[in-house]
Write a structure and sequence with these properties.
Elements (H helix, E strand, L loop, with lengths): L3 H39 L4 E8 L2 H11 L5 H7 L4 E7 L2 H12 L5 E7 L12 E10 L4 E12 H16 L6 H30 L15
Parallel strand pairs: 2-5
Antiparallel strand pairs: 1-2, 3-4, 4-5
This protein binds ligand 0O2.
The site of ligand 0O2 has 9 residues, from helix 5.
């Protein structure tokens, strides 16, 4: 049996974390609807893959402490906007903007911030669209707007970012300058790949659905 003051804090903490889990679930449903509906109608989906994560209580406190935010639930709720995170991976750059548009135009989503690191990459080469939204979560006795961070990127951007993230943490943020330069070069190559793949894709699409006269025969061994 918990003492009543601790019981109250425990209940508040549980509800706090749950609100972010519910918001993540709602956003995942929205993204999965877009993915399924689009591929059913168009035989193609701008969304390749979706993942989600909840920041751990430890990660939340570390960030609040590092940034000097008030260390209470209200301070954390008001200041930390990436407790719930969704990452959407698309095939092509144009798809990332299409997905951004499809999400931000939904009526129950309030857009709090959009950062376009695709048009303006970070100096290290990082590219992605970042969106902070609030979505209403309906609980037993209240409706709570909950913020969710949505990152939208291509497969190539995701490949680069996941390696860079590992390197950044391996060196505890102090990545040797030679490696920084190589990462930037790799980011440029990834960007070129995105541009080339989109152009190729556009060419294939513009050929239309007319079947080629006779399929080429493979040489018999
Ligand atoms: P994790 O482990 O992915 O959660 P802030 O979020 O307030 O600290 P800022 O600059 O306002 O900082 O946020 P921004 O730029 O929108 O970036 C937030 C998240 O984007 C990061 O979360 C990363 O996931 C990703 N990100 C931003 N810049 C980079 C980058 O240079 N490389 C990589 N690999 N990812 C990046 P976290 O909390 O840092 O990390």
């Amino acid at each position: 049996e918990w003492p009543s003051d601790l019981h109250k804090i425990r209940t508040e903490l549980t509800r706090f974390m749950m609100s972010y889990k519910f918001a993540t679930d709602e956003m995942m449903t929205k993204v999965n609807i877009l993915k399924e509906e689009f591929s059913a109608i168009h035989d193609y989906s701008p969304i390749e893959h979706v993942s989600h994560r909840l920041k751990s209580p430890e990660g939340i406190l570390k960030k609040a402490n590092r940034k000097g935010y008030p260390l209470d639930l209200e301070g954390i709720r008001d200041n930390i906007q990436d407790i719930a995170g969704i990452r959407i991976t698309c095939s092509f750059i144009s798809d990332t903007y299409r997905v951004l548009e499809m999400l931000t135009s939904q009526r129950d989503i309030t857009v709090l911030q959009v950062k376009d690191y695709i048009t303006e990459p970070k100096p290290n080469g990082y590219r992605s669209l970042h969106l902070i939204v609030a979505i209403p979560v309906f609980m037993s006795d209240r409706v709570q707007p909950v913020t969710v961070e949505v990152q939208i990127r291509t497969v190539a951007m995701d490949f680069w970012a996941s390696l860079e993230h590992k390197i950044f943490y391996k060196y505890d943020g102090a990545v040797p300058s030679a490696l920084v330069g190589e990462l930037k070069q790799a980011a440029d190559v990834a960007n070129q790949l995105d541009v080339d793949m989109e152009r190729l894709h556009d060419q294939v699409v513009s050929l239309g659905t007319t079947p080629v006269d006779t399929p080429p025969r493979r040489a018999q061994p």
